[in-house]
Amino acid sequence: MRNLPLGSFRASRAIRTIGVIDGPNMSQLGKRNAKKYGTIGRDDFNAQLREWADGLGAELVLLVSNHDGEILEFIHANADVVDGWIVNPAGWQIYAEPVRHALEMTGKPNAETHFANTVTHFAHAQPHVRVESGLTGTALSLTMGLRQYSYLTSLIGLLNVIDAQQEPASA
Ligand SMILES: O=C1C[C@@](O)(C(=O)O)C[C@@H](O)[C@@H]1O
């Protein structure tokens, strides 16, 4: 892995804390369909996320979980710890209402993020059904299809939005 000079993608030097949540089956990165998810394994991806965060001046609290109750409790427990969230609800995007409520309660912006382009994914899997993520309606953003780089894109954007909210430019 290279140490990328990511600092120039962010003007503020303030350290922010970002909660990253990866839902069901995201523990299996590296063993999933390589056309959608690439080949990066879970441990390498965790290291990559931390390296990106470090380069951008962020600390991560990371949860990879196959259990919806655990995800809810993680959000509740970290509501006052984080400045924002990156959330990949994975298969739970279809019935994500409890997660959406929990995120909304925190009042912190959340960036929905997927490895795959889920629009193509659903169109291929179930061409007769239009399935949209239940999180998107109240998410700050939706980034998908760039594999692991969706998270880098979300992280850069989210940090800049948080910076602008917390340090508004003086008139
Ligand atoms: O499990 C996943 C992973 C996913 O959220 C992604 O990151 O690409 C896309 C979802 O459609 C799928 O159910």
TrEMBL record:
GO MF annotation list: 3-dehydroquinate dehydratase activity
Q: What is the lineage of its organism?
A: Bacteria, Bacillati, Actinomycetota, Actinomycetes, Propionibacteriales
Protein name (database record):
3-dehydroquinate dehydratase
Known partners and oligomeric status: Homododecamer.
InterPro entries attached here? Answer: DHquinase_II, DHquinase_II_sf
Concerning Pfam families, the annotation shows:
DHquinase_II
Q: Which GO terms describe its biological process?
A: chorismate biosynthetic process; quinate catabolic process
Provide the catalytic activity annotation.
Answer: 3-dehydroquinate = 3-dehydroshikimate + H2O
The EC number(s) this enzyme carries: 4.2.1.10
Task: Identify the residue position(s) of the site Transition state stabilizer.
Answer: 32
Q: From which domain of life does this come?
A: Bacteria
Matching PANTHER family: CATABOLIC 3-DEHYDROQUINASE
Class of enzymatic activity (EC top level)? lyase
Tell me what organism the protein belongs to. Answer: Raineyella antarctica
Family as reported in the entry's similarity comment: Belongs to the type-II 3-dehydroquinase family.
What UniProt keywords are attached to this protein's entry? Answer: Lyase
What Gene3D superfamilies does the database record attribute to this sequence?
Dehydroquinase, class II (3.40.50.9100)
The pathway to which it is assigned is: Metabolic intermediate biosynthesis; chorismate biosynthesis; chorismate from D-erythrose 4-phosphate and phosphoenolpyruvate: step 3/7
Q: Lyase as a keyword?
A: yes
> What does UniProt list as catalytic?
37, 114
